Model the fold of this input.
Amino acid sequence: MMETAPGIADGLIGAIGNTPLIKLQRASAMTGCTILGKAEFMSPGGSVKDRAALGIITAAEADGRLQPGGTIVEGTAGNTGIGITLVANARGYKSVIVMPETQSQEKIDFLRMIGADLRLVPAKPFKDPGNYVHVSERLARELGALWANQFDNLANREVHRLTTGAEIWAQTNGTVDAFTCACGTGGTLAGVAMALKAHKPGVRIVLADPEGSALYGWVKSNDLSVAGSSITEGIGQSRVPGNLANAPIDDAVRISDAQALEHVFSLLIDEGISVGGSSGINVAAAVETAKAMGSGHTIVTILCDGGARYQSKLFNPEFLKSKNLPVPAWMR
Done:
């Protein structure tokens, strides 16, 4: 295999990962801490899910479950589907993506644009056989294809342990004191937590959870009951996915949509950083964690994806008003 020069990525695969940490000026100033966001929106597919896609596909290649010219099926809120489709394109596979029809139009359009065989299904709870995850599992069986199974496939958290967590440790020179992250599959939080705790057992791992998700209650009191709802996509759970089971989590914080949007809008207009709703939840949780720990600490979080993927929702005044959420000043 030909070696590439430093600074040259060997195809799409070589361009996934090694994202910068960005110091978030407002959040840092508010708390007296150094709050850093891992810029996963800079990944080739535009989100942190490129890492999971690559980890799942390479693991399946290594153990023989994925053969040349094969097909990969996945149920996704969008970003993992985008990552899988792009990595599949680069590796010579076909991809079939099952997604709830309630996800943003931008993600639907993008998946079709990049060549995914997209199957939209009604949004159903996980206990319903019509839930997108169950539909994708049945479809993979019918097609004789690889079911990526991002929620319970431990290759997801393992790639974050080996890459995201290792990068954060190296980039902060081991000064990281806490890490906050919301969970869909739990792969990012669990993998980063395992990597950081191996170096520094005292590092604080905080799960950030939106309304309508059971994970806050699970961490706090082992209670998986659900109340409320959120406009954020791809995060929150009514169950504990395999990737999250046994993860070393110290605490959880509940973040409202209004809190998340305050940070999304401020990052954009005050710092020029365009991110989606899950990043807003992550930054809000980092701010809460920093305030609880006191000044002088270094808190890292994930900037999961870019704001353009949610233009029709998060940056649509009519949509925001319909949900009784604040409209940013420049859009009024």
Observations:
- Strands lie at 21-23, 34-39, 71-75, 94-100, 117-121, 146-147, 178-182, 204-210, 251-255, 298-303.
